């Protein structure tokens, strides 16, 4: 089994969005990523689908005219389109067998519409919460042609690929734990942990349920320490240099 990190653009966010109390009014570009996993049997799993390519020409597509427009701005180049990134790896969306969404926000599920032939794994609680909620635009993920597999709690999606419930950022958020033969454990936090400063300040007020978010984040950090894991945070800029992206492959 192997994994590569797909760079899918940036979000320019006010510090208050990521960790309140840390550069609240400073607008900072943070990475948006997808994680492409190739299983031993050749099947492909994609963790998170990034932002819709329509943001390339229209950054205000999702939040234009709303208060969120002042604190969150997508920043994508043509090369950041998920279809382009998959093509660089010699793949098309139809080559992906399973999609795992950590949650259904626009920067994690914005290209779900590309995968009508895949099984899309989401926590049931997240799917039911997101359906009709204004912060989860339906045009990206709530489509009749998509096939969702709704799970309740921890589950093995495939050999070496596990989802763990990490609520707090939103109800039903999940993180992903990979077990690679050489690298060992890789934890993909999703937005359970946006950036490292969240731990430094131990401030989780940017999440819907701060107490649950704190518990989830500290559980992940303990797990990472216990397993000596590679711990990839949802939007940490420093990790772009620390952990190479495509074409680097983690085995």
From TrEMBL:
InterPro entries: MBL_superfamily_lactonases, Metallo-B-lactamas, RibonucZ/Hydroxyglut_hydro. The keyword Cell membrane does not apply. Pfam families: Lactamase_B. The keyword Metal-binding applies. Transmembrane segments: none annotated. Residues 31-235 form the Metallo-beta-lactamase domain. Keywords: Hydrolase, Metal-binding, Zinc. Coiled coil: none annotated. It comes from the Bacteria. GO terms for molecular function: hydrolase activity; metal ion binding. Its cofactor is Zn(2+). SUPFAM superfamilies: Metallo-hydrolase/oxidoreductase (SSF56281). PANTHER family: 102 KBASES UNSTABLE REGION: FROM 1 TO 119443, QUORUM-QUENCHING LACTONASE YTNP-RELATED-RELATED. Belongs to the metallo-beta-lactamase superfamily. This is Zn-dependent hydrolase. It comes from Modestobacter italicus (strain DSM 44449 / CECT 9708 / BC 501). The lineage of its organism: Bacteria, Bacillati, Actinomycetota, Actinomycetes, Geodermatophilales. The gene is attM.
């Amino acid at each position: 089994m192997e994994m590569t990190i797909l760079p899918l653009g940036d979000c320019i966010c006010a510090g208050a969005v990521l960790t309140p109390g840390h550069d609240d009014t400073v607008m900072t570009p943070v990475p948006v990523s997808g994680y492409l996993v190739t299983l031993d049997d050749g099947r492909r799993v994609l963790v998170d689908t990034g932002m819709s390519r329509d943001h390339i020409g229209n950054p205000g597509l999702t939040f234009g005219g709303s208060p969120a427009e002042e604190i969150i701005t997508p920043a994508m180049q043509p090369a950041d389109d998920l279809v382009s990134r998959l093509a660089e790896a010699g793949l098309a969306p139809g080559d992906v067998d399973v999609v795992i969404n950590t949650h259904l926000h626009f920067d994690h599920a914005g290209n779900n519409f590309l995968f009508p032939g895949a099984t899309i794994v989401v926590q049931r609680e997240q799917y039911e919460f997101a359906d009709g909620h204004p912060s989860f635009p339906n045009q990206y993920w709530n489509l009749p042609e998509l096939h969702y597999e709704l799970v309740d709690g921890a589950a093995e999606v495939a050999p070496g690929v596990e989802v763990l419930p990490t609520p707090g950022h939103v109800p039903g958020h999940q993180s992903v734990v990979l077990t690679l033969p050489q690298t060992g454990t890789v934890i993909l936090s999703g937005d359970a942990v946006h950036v490292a400063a969240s731990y430094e300040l131990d401030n989780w007020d940017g999440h819907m349920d701060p107490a649950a978010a704190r518990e989830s984040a500290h559980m992940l950090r303990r797990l990472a320490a216990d397993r000596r894991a590679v711990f990839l945070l949802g939007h940490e800029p420093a990790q772009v240099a620390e952990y190479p992206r495509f074409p680097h492959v983690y085995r």
